[in-house]
Amino acid sequence: MAEQRAGFVALIGEPNAGKSTLLNRMVGAKISIVTHKVQTTRARIRGVCMAGDAQIVFVDTPGLFRPRRRLDRAMVAAAWGGAADADIVVLLIEAHRGLTEGVQSILDALKERGESRRIALAINKIDRVKAESLLALAQKMNEAFSFVETFMISAEKGYGVDKLRDWLAGALPVGPWLYPEDQIADLPMRMIAAEITREKLTLRLHEELPYQLTVETEKWEDRKDGSTRIDQLVYVARDGHKGIVLGNKGETIKAIGQAARAELTEFLDRPVHLFLQVKVRPNWLEEPDRYSEMGLDFKDGD
Question: Which structural domain range is residue 193 located in?
């Protein structure tokens, strides 16, 4: 019988590099929200992937960027914290963007931190560029930093993902599994439900507003008829934001609720009754409890 292996793998990179898409592809379920907007992943979401006799526990960190506000600073601290705790770190970059200023700053930070652990490079979105420019980018990146392995992938289409997963499975330390075999994430279901609703809000709304709101699951009731009632609060910073979220005659929040309920019903595999309320909390970005709810440390924003 083969030896069991288990360990933590941190996915790091700039916002929108495809970390959440890769995590969802590896785990085989949608546990991290994926949108076209940057900075959507706030908490360090762990997804569990079984690969033969190995259990890969993914830490999907927020994108690394230059922080401006307390929430930004807490997100960046969470990202580096996730990398520090991991057995293996995978840096994701976008093939069509290459070695950007942001990627260079991540490489500089890795060098400064004296990262001796194994760090692999995954060049994502390879379907967007020609083969020759991919090879040139891989060479350039490996000249800039000593990666143990380089992978060419498309997290969205699945190209090269199996190869990356198999390598990770073999590179993890020998040891017992950390989670039950059938568990895909260590986030409470209440938080996953809130993240799903927040994704729908982010997709529907535009500009700065999505980063000025948060969603909390206030009540969760599993009913005798096999359905689940979920009550959620959407916190916004200003009265004007509340009107935007509600929309004309409540049409926007109704559409968001329908989309979130449909996905929750599929995710939980049972009927879901979802009730959304929008509340104005001008200072929610400065409330420690809101950060705890998102899996972030309020003090990291100082």
Answer: 189-301
Instruction: Flag whether 184 is in a domain.
Output: no
Residue 271 lies in a domain: yes
Token digits of residue 22: 């890769």
Secondary structure E strands in 5-69: 5-13, 45-51, 54-60
Same domain for 12 and 139, yes or no, is yes
Query: How far is residue 153's CA from residue 162's CA, in Å, rounded to a whole number?
Result: 9
Is 124 in contact with 157 (CB distance < 8 Å)? no
Specify the number of domains making up the chain.
2
Q: Using one digit for the tens of pLDDT, what is the confidence trace for 77-93?
A: 665 565 667 889 899 99
CA–CA dist 83, 61 (Å, integer): 8
- H/E element holding 204? helix 189-204
Residues 294, 230 share a domain: yes
Give the model confidence (pLDDT) of 192-251 as tens digits.
888 889 889 988 887 556 557 888 888 888 889 989 999 999 998 888 889 889 999 999
Q: Considering the entire predicted model, what is its pTM?
A: 0.62
